[in-house]
Design brief:
Number of strands of chain B: 22
Strand order of the largest sheet of chain B: 3-2-1-11-22
CATH class of the domain at 143-255 and 419-511 in chain A: Alpha Beta
CATH topology of the domain at 143-255 and 419-511 in chain A: FAD/NAD(P)-binding domain
Strand content of chain A: 15-25%
Structural class of chain A: alpha/beta
Oligomer: heterodimer
CATH superfamily of the largest domain in chain B: FAD/NAD(P)-binding domain
CATH architecture of the domain at 143-255 and 419-511 in chain A: 3-Layer(bba) Sandwich
Number of helices of chain A: 20
Largest sheet of chain B: 5 strands, parallel
Shape of chain B: globular
Strand content of chain B: 15-25%
Distance between the termini of chain B: 35 Å
Helix content of chain A: 25-40%
Number of helices of chain B: 8
Order of helices and strands of chain B: EHEHEEEHEEEEHEEEEHEHEHEEEEEEEH
Number of strands of chain A: 29
Largest sheet of chain A: 7 strands, mixed
């Protein structure tokens, strides 16, 4: 493609556009005002013929910038998909004729709306460049797996089966983790009746025999730098030897620690015959299929009580506030250790809610009932012991009375605490160039924002998203297994297999310079004008993904592979030196500046609407589809994330005579829905300071409003625009019309 | 239809719900060629019919928008709707799959302008709203339907309505002569993601779903709660259209029951807890929810949602499997009878409306699978080496919530890629 910019503007007359609007007037504007080189109208632009017309201009007329003025960018996306050119979409269907009444009265303002969207589309595309892959792209596809337990081993085996090399770094002297300490596992295959062999020995043997998998035992990761496709990790052994290797992606399968309940008095832990589920596994292994003996005096256990949710599911001091998910099935399995060996042993499971989901879970529960395991709904009052065995005093929820039973052995289901490393929100960060290894850290990232993956709730490194569970806030680093959320073995296997896919995907896409989720495939990346940068660090601080470090001279260092292309850095930059090829302060700024602003006495205000392209913009589209009307004075511009909103857009708009600005982002805070995590929050924060700007212009604060809008706000989003129109009617037109 | 190029390096994904879309996208975003089949006219599956997700109470259409953007942007992924697998032959790495494509009677010229819908008159039960509302004989399945293309109901073919639709279309998009097609695809691996359907509530006879107007299912209740659903977001009693304020939720309706579904459907407890928040959302202090349960299965980290709901004084919990429901003829109120097992108290409780938390059953009955796979007693696909390169994703493999279905789908994408990479002889 030649560097010379040649712009084509294509205006569709279909879907009633031709009947409702004077498209030839729009064409004239595109040509004379916006200076498009070629302007064409078409009765049915998305038809094969219409698309061929555009393609012909690309092939034979050298058109490389295309403004399509037709339906929403969300419609006919595949039809208007041309390779190697910059494309903008002016939305005159969902955004104009469908949100405006078809009346003579409304015609003039509706036409003006469409004319502005034509200008905006052409000026936007003229400010765009076609993104080329980042020069940073590199070719590592091997995967670093931190943690050699069930999750880590599964990830390695599954990645290797797809042909990828892996390195497992395990801090202990052996693979297998907690799973290797178990006598048997919960069954993973129909008929889900009996405990099964753990399968861990076979997995270890498979790993040892696999030339694709390298295992580093007694080792930790002491330094991780780089980005997807070019991570560099220091792997250090206990004895102090360190080697540095390069990786394409990372899986963090750092597992969990058993919850310590020794300080919860009522559980009686500390008495010899009150033990944890993990400790029972050790007794069962020792018994090796024979009778299990109690620790205090070696007596064969004739009576065992399992206490579910021991130190869990409560806000009381020392308790885990969550359910660990696996413990009900684990206790059933462990009760079977006794029953399968000797059906006469009494096994009681004291539970609050028995949680055995799915087909396998419920079958296994029924099998426990068939084997005469007793299930009692109750809550422990006190577990006590005078040496051997223990007494369990509990409130029987069915009989509604306090009951005491004596047992040879009491087993506590204590739950899982994630090994998620250091909490970067609490630990101060190292100064640039002053990296120090942390023994508590799992990854020892050299990232400016901290050494580990950010934690979500209760210390889990979970993704926040229901529909995108693998997305951490560190691109190319995927967490798997119980570090992510509490889970049983079978789920950890599934989870680790999925994480292996995500790691492979991240490494492959990094090689091609493509973004990871959710803008998967996006080739654009942020660049900055060094000479303009004031080293204020806002971009490094505000990036939701920790993508930006600082170089030796304290300038921002963009690690493109880590970037998700949300533009939050661009919005943060007070001196506007950050931009993407196809999305920049200018691509939006040009749209804002080039609409027609009628003078004050026309009583035609202009309202700038910046709408998140994933939620608010679709809501406005669907408003059009549903025939919900909104003010003809609105000019809506979709943004990648409200976090990319630079204050200059609002200031420029107000300076050039807009009467109001409405900003629509996603829900922020604890239950955030922002797909870029912090983007909407950052935008709201920045806009909370906009009053100063308004004051300096002597404008009323009501002229700028920032909202959280959901994709389902099909009536509310238009209403918010109309509210602004009413506000303007009330407080009057802007004095800044020239 | 243009010929579909596929080879033994292609992955076929059967089912376009959240699991199938995820599996297809994850594989395609690894650079693999993927064909995604969906039986209905649009992608999205059951989650697109949900008002909110638990535990965040966010809207599923938000994730759907992202996924649809990914679909539109990915040249490796081809979507075939109204398509069903009829037969599969071959082995891992080399399958031949017969696919039947039903006529939509609308071609790719469709701009979704909506003129055909305005022109036709006949109305049908709206599948998207589980029959609670009506749709026209020419329709867009829902506002976010992808492909964004209308459908002509086969029932109007040959009627005057069909001609009206055709006349109304200025773009030559309506083709009333469109015929059912059969195509054959060569693929290397198959991801089976046909999901679930709600258990037929009428079969739980003591609960009177087929006799008592004010006994509805959880999936119907979900549509009612949606402001763009059939009742405009109002929780209305089917008997008299009055707003229901005192609402009972019956857990394990058809699940954990040897007479119905043996398994626990996993999602229903969280779904009812979520739906109890709708009662508060719509009615504030006046709304009352009562949950009849065996065990509340708010598993793992999301147990905090259960604890939060328990703090609401207007939501109460009764540990009981409801024995039966009778209708109070005068008020139309369903009256629930049973024993509260915590203390063994008998109850006979009237409510305005009863919501049955119906279980998930696999969409494809065990005897109707067109492909030879190991299926367990509950009808879910078991992971087995005997399944060759057919991998279950999401609720084809077990009763799963969305989060776990997505994990499962992502894992299945890797399993399929392993086969494809072996077939291609590539080494990472």
């Amino acid at each position: 493609m030649s560097d010379e910019k040649k712009t084509g503007c294509y205006i569709c007359k279909g879907c009633g556009i031709g009947e409702r609007l004077n498209t030839s007037q729009m064409a004239t504007i595109a040509e004379r005002e916006a200076r498009a080189n070629i302007v064409r109208e078409h009765d049915f632009l998305c038809s094969a013929e219409g698309v061929a017309m555009i393609q012909n201009d690309i092939d034979n007329e050298g058109v490389n910038h295309i403004a399509i003025v037709a339906c929403s960018r969300r419609a006919k996306t595949e039809a208007f998909n041309f390779d190697g050119v910059a494309i903008s979409r002016g939305n005159i269907r969902e955004g104009v004729i469908w949100v405006r009444p078809d009346t003579d009265e409304a015609q003039e303002t509706t036409q003006e709306m469409a004319e502005d969207y034509t200008r905006m589309a052409v000026f936007e595309v003229n400010a765009m460049n076609v993104p080329k892959p980042s020069g940073e792209a590199e070719g590592q596809t091997n995967i670093l797996i931190v943690g050699g337990g069930l999750s880590g081993m599964t990830a390695a085996i599954e990645a290797s089966k797809a042909g990828y090399k892996c390195t497992i770094v395990e801090k202990s002297g052996a693979l297998g983790g907690h799973a290797a300490q178990a006598w048997k596992r919960i069954p993973q295959h129909a008929p889900y009746k009996d405990p099964e062999d753990t399968g861990i020995d076979e997995m270890i043997a498979a790993i040892e025999a696999d030339p694709n998998i390298e295992v580093c035992l007694n080792s930790r990761v002491t330094r991780t730098s780089g980005a997807p496709g070019r991570f560099s990790a220091d792997i250090s052994t206990e004895s102090g030897d360190t080697k540095t290797e390069n990786f394409g992606a990372i899986i963090q399968a750092s597992g969990y620690t058993d919850h310590d309940v020794s300080h919860i008095d009522k559980l009686g832990y500390g008495n010899a015959d009150v033990i944890t589920q993990a400790e029972l596994e050790a007794l069962a292994r020792e018994a090796n299929g024979g009778p299990i003996k109690r620790p205090s005096d070696g007596k064969e256990v004739a009576n065992v009580v399992f206490i579910q949710c021991a130190g869990q599911r409560s806000d009381e001091e020392g308790h885990l506030p969550y359910c660990s998910g696996h413990c009900c099935l684990t206790s059933i399995k462990q009760a079977m250790y006794f029953k399968d060996q000797n059906p006469d042993i009494d096994t009681t499971i004291l539970y609050d809610d028995l949680r055995t989901p799915g087909a396998g879970g419920e079958d296994f529960y029924r099998s426990g009932q068939d084997k005469q395991v007793i299930f009692t709904k109750g809550a422990v009052n006190q577990i006590s012991s005078s040496g051997n065995g223990a007494k369990v005093n509990f409130k029987d929820r069915i009989l509604d009375e306090d009951v005491e039973i004596e047992a040879d052995l009491v087993v506590l289901a204590t739950g899982m605490v994630p090994n998620s490393g250091v909490n970067i929100d609490e630990v101060p960060q190292d100064e640039p160039g002053q990296f120090e290894v942390s023994v508590d850290s799992i990854l020892n990232l050299t990232y400016r924002q901290g050494k580990d993956v950010p934690q979500l709730k209760y210390g889990f490194s979970d993704s926040h998203f229901i529909c995108f569970p693998y997305e951490t806030r560190r691109t190319g680093i995927y967490t798997a297994g119980p570090v992510r959320r509490p889970m049983d073995d079978q789920q950890a296997i599934e989870d680790a297999t999925g994480a292996a896919l995500k790691a492979i995907q991240a490494a492959e896409n990094a090689q091609l310079g493509r973004a990871a989720h959710p803008r998967s495939g996006d080739l654009s990346y942020p660049s900055f004008r060094r000479e303009g940068c004031t080293q204020c660090k806002r971009c490094t601080v505000e990036c939701p993904f920790g993508a930006i470090d600082e170089d030796e001279e304290r300038y921002p260092k963009f690690n493109e592979g880590r970037c998700r292309r949300c533009g939050t850095c661009m919005g943060a930059c007070p001196v506007r030196v950050i931009s993407f090829e196809n999305y920049s302060v200018d691509t939006i700024g040009q749209q804002i500046k080039n609409i027609d602003i009628p003078d004050e006495f026309d009583e035609k205000p202009r309202i700038l609407v910046l709408a998140c392209e994933n939620d608010a913009y679709p809501a406005l589209d669907m408003a059009g589809m549903a025939g919900v009307e909104y003010s003809a004075f609105a000019r809506v511009i979709p943004v990648r994330c409200l976090g990319s909103t630079n204050l200059i857009w609002v200031t420029d708009a107000l300076n050039s005579g807009y009467d109001g600005c409405v900003l629509m982002g996603c829900q922020k805070g604890e239950n955030y829905q922002c797909h870029f995590v912090k983007g909407s929050e950052m935008a709201h924060y920045r806009m909370s300071k906009v009053d100063d700007t308004l004051q300096s212009l002597s404008l009323e604060p009501e002229r700028v409003a920032t909202y959280e809008v959901a994709i389902t706000d099909i009536e509310r989003a238009p209403q918010l625009i109309n509210d602004m129109a009413e506000t303007i009617e009330r407080i009057g037109m802007s004095p800044f019309k020239f | 239809m243009s010929e579909i190029v596929a080879s033994n390096e292609t992955i076929l994904v059967v089912g376009g719900g959240i699991s199938g879309m995820t599996a297809a996208l994850e594989a395609a975003e690894c650079g693999k060629q993927v064909i995604l089949l969906e039986k209905t006219p649009a992608l999205g599956g059951r989650v697109s019919q949900l008002y909110r997700y638990f535990p965040k109470l966010c809207h599923p259409t938000c994730g759907l928008e992202i996924n649809l953007r990914r679909v539109k942007a990915n040249p490796n992924l081809r979507v075939l709707t109204m398509a069903e697998v009829t037969a599969v032959s071959g082995d891992a790495g080399n399958y031949s799959v017969k696919v039947r494509i039903s006529p939509r009677y609308v071609n790719e010229n469709c701009t979704a302008c909506g003129e055909c819908e305005k022109a036709v008159e006949a109305e049908f039960d709206d599948e998207f709203n589980y029959g609670l509302g009506k749709r026209k004989g020419a329709y867009l399945p829902h506002k976010m339907a992808f492909p964004q293309r209308y459908v002509i109901d086969p029932a109007i073919i040959g009627t005057a309505d069909a001609d009206k639709a055709k006349e109304a279309c200025k773009y030559g998009a309506i083709d009333l002569d469109m015929q059912e097609q059969e195509i054959e695809l060569t693929v290397g691996a198959i991801i089976w993601a046909t999901g679930w359907r709600p258990y037929d509530a009428a079969r739980i006879q003591p609960y009177g779903y087929d006799r008592i107007a004010n006994v509805i299912t959880s999936v119907e209740f979900e549509r009612m709660a949606d402001p763009y659903g059939p009742t405009g977001g109002k929780l209305l009693r089917p008997s008299d259209g009055k707003e229901a304020k005192d609402i009972a939720f019956i857990q394990c309706a058809g699940s954990r029951d040897r007479n119905h579904l043996k398994h626990c459907s996993r999602i229903c407890c969280m779904a009812s807890l979520k739906q109890s928040t709708y009662v508060t959302e719509k009615h504030g202090e006046d709304g009352k929810a009562t949950i009849y349960y065996i065990d509340i299965r708010a598993i793992d980290r999301i147990d905090d949602f259960y604890r939060k709901v328990k703090e609401n004084p207007n939501v109460s919990f009764i540990k009981s499997k409801v024995a039966n429901i009778v209708e109070d003829k005068e008020t139309g109120n369903p009256v629930l009878r049973g024993v509260d097992t915590e203390g063994y108290h008998r109850y006979e409780n009237p409510h305005d409306l009863v919501v049955l938390a119906v279980g998930m059953e696999p969409s494809v009955p065990a005897d109707a699978f067109p492909v030879d796979v190991e299926i367990n007693e509950e009808g879910f696909i078991e992971a087995s080496p005997d399944n060759g390169a057919v991998f279950a994703a999401g609720c084809s493999s077990d009763a799963l919530d969305v989060n776990r279905a997505v994990q499962s789908a992502t894992a299945s994408a890797l399993r399929a890629i392993q086969v494809i990479n072996r077939a291609a002889g590539t080494e990472g």
